[in-house]
Each structure stands twice: as structure tokens, then as C-alpha cells.
Amino acid sequence: MIDYHHALCDYQAMEVLVIDGQGGGLGKAIVSALKAHFPQTEIMAVGTNSIATQQMLRAGADHAATGENPAVVLSRSADIIIGPIGICIADSMYGEVTPKMAEAVGKSRAKRILVPVNICGNIVVGVQDTSLSAMIDGVIKAAEAVLNV
Predict the structure, then answer these.
(1) pLDDT computed for residue 5 by the predictor
(2) DSSP string across 15-63
(3) Which CATH number fits domain 4-143: 3.20.190.10, 1.10.10.10, 3.40.50.720, 3.40.930.10?
């Protein structure tokens, strides 16, 4: 069994950015799971709206902000960016993701862990519709791989 606490002590300086919008349910679930599995990792959250931001703060994000500019600024320094696939697509999530936000995420040097949700006009072919808990498990496994845990 992996000792996550010990393994991630070396990764405390890594910047993990979670971006979400709409009602913030996905971002909330991601932040909660990350905090449970990687308690020493500092998590920054950006909501495309204040409701999403508040949900991620309630789930345990260490820092949070709302809107385009925080997404652009934090994407520059993040080591990992996590969110629904729409964060890379301009005008997705019913217009909440601006072109600047999508460009910043796409140009970031960060590893991107994208959750393939088939909503808001974005359909990812070859991906099964899966439960939120199964997708969150996939996020954690991908984060472990990025962090070399």
C-alpha cells in the first residue's frame, strides 16, 4: 500500500489548479478527493462563477478565485490543471469558459487531467458515460501518475 502522506511530502511545492464552472459539483468532488488522497498538496481553485468557487472552497481548496483573469494567471504557474474537458474549449460550459481561459489552459506547461463529461455540446467519442465517482477515481490515478507516487 502506498503511503500517500509520505510520498507527497516531496510534492508540497507542486501547484495543483482545479477549474470548474456551472454549479461546481465536479470541481467540488475533485477537490475533496484530492485532499483525501494528497493532504499535503496545496490546491488552488478557479470557478468560472462564484457558485463554483464557493463549492470548491467548501470541499477544501486552499485558495480560490473567480473568473477569467485568475484562470489565466494561475495556469501560468500550475504544475497540474484538472477540470472538465470544456476548460480547453472557448465558449464551452454555456459560455463560461472564455477564449482567453481556454488558451491559457491549452498553452500552460502544466499536465492537464481532463474529465470527459459529455455535456454543453462537447461529446468525446470513444469515452463511455461513466459515474462521477468513477471519473474522480480516474482523476486520482492520473494525479498519482503525474506525481510519480
Answers:
(1) 44
(2) -EEEEE-TT-HHHHHHHHHHHHH-TTS-EEEEESSHHHHHHHHHTT-SE
(3) 3.40.50.720
Residue 70, judged by CB atoms within 10 A of its CB (0-12, 13-18, 19+), counts as buried
53 and 29 Cβ atoms separated by less than 8 Å? no
Q: Write out the chain's pLDDT in tens, 149 residues.
A: 444 444 444 545 689 999 999 889 999 999 999 999 999 899 999 999 999 999 999 999 999 999 999 999 999 999 999 999 999 999 999 899 999 999 999 999 999 999 987 666 777 777 777 888 888 999 999 998 888 75
- Domain ranges (residues) in the chain: 4-143
- Look up the pTM and report it: 0.86
3-state secondary structure 103-144: HHHHHCCCEEEEECCCCCCCCCCCCCCCCHHHHHHHHHHHHH
